[in-house]
Amino acid sequence: MATIAFDIPEDLQQIARAVEAFCRAEVIARHEKYHDLLNDPRNTYRRDGRLTDAAIEQIRAVRQASAKQGFFNVSVPESLGGAGLGMIAYYTLIEQVYRLCGPHNWLCDFVISHWAFGPSAVLTTITDEARERVLPDMMAGRSMLCFGMSEPGAGSDAAMLQTRAVKTDKGWKISGRKIWTTHIPIADYVIVFAQTDPERAAQKKGGISAFLVPTSTPGIQVESIIRMHGHIGGYEGITVFDEVEVEPWQLVGTLHDGFKIGLLGVSMGRIYNSARAVGLARWALEMAIDYAQQRQAFGNPISEYQGVSFPLANAATEVHAAHLMGLNVALLLDRGERAVKELSMAKAYSVQVAARAVDQAIQTHGAMGFTNELGLHEAYARVRQANVADGTNEILARTIAQRLFKGDVEL
Ligand SMILES: Cc1cc2nc3c(=O)[nH]c(=O)nc-3n(C[C@H](O)[C@H](O)[C@H](O)COP(=O)(O)OP(=O)(O)OC[C@H]3O[C@@H](n4cnc5c(N)ncnc54)[C@H](O)[C@@H]3O)c2cc1C
Q1: Lining residues, ligand 1, CB within 6 Å
Q2: CA of 392 to the centre of ligand 1 (A)
């Protein structure tokens, strides 16, 4: 029963089956075994909102096990030691992982390397010395990365960032404040964006550079964890950089041209979010379809009522369209096309339809839909956040419109 005419190559199907087995053994089984630690927030987080050491240990174990079996770096370029399977593999596997694991088996976040948390094409732009120092541990899942671009006064308009890297005899000294940096409290390295030429930066003509910095460097302090959606802990942090010394080996990409690195990463983030949104939406819809056939009201299963079944049919149609868009843009990227318009469309559409689909799954479950036990609220929180992270829906609409008015009208 094929739904998608595009044939996933046999070797990728094999990897997908192996990743599924891995998720069952290393993610779902861990959540069952360590349920109190991983699924009771009172044990997952400390009072200050950071993950507990025991929870961090589980994250590390999943990363390392996945790296050992060759899944973690599946889409990392071969030049870095990855499998180099590209974006179609990335999309297919991320989508599958979330459809299988849902939001509550959250260790699945660490099965496939996310560009901001681990190895990716972004690391092709680090220096040879940085490769020697950083890459082996990161490829093996022993160390973790994070990405410090956003600041209190610089979100969508990232060029407003105020963090400065002042030239010294040995390199630069970085000072400033970063916000929303996912995993900064537990990461070993952060890629920090800072002004290296304030004049050019003020004119929005470059002048911003990226640096790879160990989070243990003196002068870096994670001030606080940002809690969201009523959670008692979280992953995102606010960090102060106070005259943090960096040397030339830590420069990422070209001096004054750091935004290219940001764009490269964010493009992968858009594929990732498209796939994760579709995966979580399918997880939620499948639950809702099942529940609607079992739940009785007024003498019938509620699936018999068009008030229940038609919204699910609409949600499924939208998710199917998002799935096709995601696969299509992954193929375009693997062909070497930039596909700026298509990537923006796929990400913005996928996260919006996923939020609608999960919301509909909650509605189908009645009061059950709000329970912690089902985890639908958590799926909703995750896909809702993706409507802002890695390019808000509005910024993506702006990009699509810019492309259209430049004559890129192929649809
Ligand atoms: C879960 C999560 C994780 C994140 N992780 C990271 C991370 O690891 N590293 C990092 O650097 N950042 C991270 N971010 C920050 C993220 O990149 C920003 O939230 C995003 O760039 C938007 O910036 P903002 O939140 O400041 O919103 P703003 O830029 O202040 O936007 C506010 C609203 O105005 C709209 N808007 C802005 N400009 C326009 C315009 N020209 N036209 C129309 N509408 C406009 C936006 O779409 C939005 O709706 C994360 C965010 C989230 C939610």
Answers
A1: 116, 146-150, 155-156, 180-182, 236, 385, 388-389, 392, 394-395, 398
A2: 6
How far apart CA 145 and CA 106 sit, in angstroms, is: 18
pTM of this prediction?
A: 0.97
| pLDDT tens digits along 20-63 | 999 999 999 999 999 999 999 999 999 999 999 999 999 999 99
Using one digit for the tens of pLDDT, what is the confidence trace for 109-153?
999 999 999 999 999 999 999 999 999 999 999 999 999 999 999
Could you give the CA distance from residue 265 to residue 319 in angstroms, rounded to a whole number? 25
Q: What sections of 102-174 are H helices per DSSP?
A: 128-139
Q: Whose CA is nearest to atom 35 of ligand 1?
A: 394
Q: Which of 160, 181, 388, 399 to mutate to test the pocket of ligand 1 (most atoms within 8 A of CB)?
A: 388
Count of beta carbons in the 10 Å neighbourhood of residue 239: 22
Q: Catalogue the long-range contacts made by 203-207 (C-beta closer than 8 Å, 24 or more residues apart).
A: 204/159, 206/256, 206/257, 206/259, 207/256
Domains and CATH numbers, the chain: 10-116+131-139 (1.10.540), 145-258 (2.40.110.10), 260-405 (1.20.140.10)
